[in-house]
Amino acid sequence: MKATRSLTSTYINEPMSSGTLTQQSLSKAHREPLRGVARGVLVAIGIALCFMPEAGGSKPMQYVTYKEYALHLLHYDKKQHICLLRLYGKESAWNPKASNGSHYGIPQGKSEWLKDQDGYAQVRWGLGYIEHRYQTPCKAYDHWKAYNWH
Which domain holds residue 95? Predict the structure, then answer.
């Protein structure tokens, strides 16, 4: 039993002959570098959380363009998206501040409410209008080609 205690005591308190550190020396020798790494990770997580969009919020991420947002709202239907790109390209050049008489924003809707909205809200409004009146952006674009308005 003395030999076992002696061997255990030697293992815990001294480096092994192969040069590896013991459990005790690991905690003492590497405490500060590990704390530094942990602090760095926590700072990185904190910074990332500051710049993340609100989880579950309706506010789109700032780096998504109006065109990309429209593609998302169209459930990535490329055909409809191309029609919408052409339609809004002709109407407002995708400019949320565009106005033509009493028509405002990206969809050039006849609603003063659109003047005060950001481009994302304008795209949502415009797609709702198109869905109600024409069902799809391609049908709205066909109407625009025929009559020069939608």
Answer: 66-147
